Amino acid sequence: TEFIQGQLTSLPFIEMLQKTTLDSEHRIYSLLGGTFGNLEQDYFADILSGLLLTGDKLWMDAVIRFDHTLQTDRKWFDRYRGYAQDPKRQAFYFRPLKEMGFDASKGEFFLQMKEEETLEALRFTFYFFAKEMQRVTIDGNVCTLLPESTVELQNILVYDPEVLIRFFEARDFRVISKQIHESMAQFVFEKQ
């Protein structure tokens, strides 16, 4: 058994992954913690379709919705707006920028919601909006945030589970397990 972690979209990682796991009897790829929602959906699903071999498993979780009404969409927005306004969550979202030397007090957090039409999913994007110029040096390189610059911090996608399944079926996956508890789901897909 080997556990491999890395940037799945990079060619060196894909080559290393293929070489290291080629003789493995069972290969399970996991995208947990909302990972898939932070990736470009079509592009990454196509990478997975090309990378996984017949019989390989893809295990992922997702936030789900069954109701596509404006009223329900508003409830989702209110939920994530609360996240954006919570000081503890703001600290969590801002931590990578803080570790680089940026100052959170020189900007504000905001949330944007839009619908991803091909997936019929709601995309909630958390941003940091710079109010003042900030400049830091990272590994000898100067990084500048100008006033009114935005930095995307996180995406959360809320999927219709059946649309998500069809999305992967179109890329030669079949769902072999689906567990739903309230607004969370876990899926295991098998590459055909």
How would you characterize the overall build of this protein?
The protein has 192 residues and is an alpha+beta fold. The protein contains five helices and nine strands, in the order H-E-H-E-H-H-E-E-E-E-E-H-E-E. The protein has helices at residues 11-21, 41-51, 70-85, 87-100, 161-169, and strands spanning 28-31, 57-64, 107-116, 121-130, 134-138, 141-145, 150-159, 173-181, 184-191. The strands form two sheets. Strands 1, 2, 3, 4, 7, 8 and 9 form a seven-stranded mixed sheet that branches. A two-stranded antiparallel ribbon has the order 5-6. A hairpin with a 2-residue loop joins strand 5 (134-138) and strand 6. The chain is flat and about 55 Å long. The protein starts with 10 loop residues before the first helix and ends with a strand.
